[in-house]
């Protein structure tokens, strides 16, 4: 079998810009602490290395990993706004794959070793 996971990338470019400005990339603390349990908001974003580690810990080996953007678009706004989005938000993600918004990984179960108790 094959499992495919799609996870937000904590290192995507807009998050990096927020951090450079000194702003938090996380939701406001009052939203978390004042919510009725269980908190149903966004819990965690990951890096590529963390996704691969989580898959490994869960008994899966990554077969293919890709990264993409889905919320940044050049189809909306004036030409000036589109140019701004292209230069400030999209161009860095074209140059640096690790700055893209979403991590998608396909993985297969790790086969147990022949000499293991379950193998």
Rg, Å, rounded: 19 Å
Q: What is the number of E strands?
A: 3
The biggest sheet, with number of strands, parallel, antiparallel or mixed sense and barrel status, is: 3 strands, antiparallel
- What is the helical fraction, as a range of percent? 25-40%
What coarse outline follows from CA principal-axis ratios? globular
> If strands are numbered along the chain, what order do they take across the biggest sheet?
1-3-2
Distance between the termini: 17 Å
Reading the helices and strands in chain order gives EHHHEHE
SS-derived structural category: alpha+beta
Low-confidence stretches: none
Strand content: 15-25%
Number of helices: 4
Mean pLDDT: 84
Structure description:
- The structure is a single chain.
- The chain is α+β, with helices and mostly antiparallel strands and 119 residues long.
- It has 4 helices and 3 strands.
- Strands 1-3-2 form a 3-stranded antiparallel sheet, with helices on one face.
- The two termini are 17 Å apart.
Quick overview:
This protein has 119 residues and is an alpha+beta fold.
Keywords:
single chain, 119 residues, alpha+beta, 3-stranded antiparallel β-sheet, 4 helices, 34% helix, globular
List the helices and strands and how they pair.
Elements lengths: L2 E6 L4 H8 L8 H5 L14 H10 L2 E9 L10 H17 L6 E8 L10
Antiparallel strand pairs: 1-3, 2-3
């Amino acid at each position: 079998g094959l499992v495919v996971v799609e996870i937000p990338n904590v290192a995507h470019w807009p998050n990096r810009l927020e951090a450079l400005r000194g702003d938090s990339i996380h939701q406001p603390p009052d939203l978390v602490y004042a919510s009725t349990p269980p908190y149903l908001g966004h819990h965690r974003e990951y890096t590529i290395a963390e996704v691969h580690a989580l898959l490994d810990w869960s008994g899966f080996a990554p077969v293919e990993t890709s990264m993409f953007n889905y919320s940044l678009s050049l189809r909306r706004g004036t030409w000036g706004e589109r140019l701004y989005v292209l230069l400030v938000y999209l161009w860095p993600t074209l140059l640096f794959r690790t700055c893209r918004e979403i991590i998608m990984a396909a993985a297969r179960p790790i086969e147990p070793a022949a000499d293991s108790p379950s193998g």
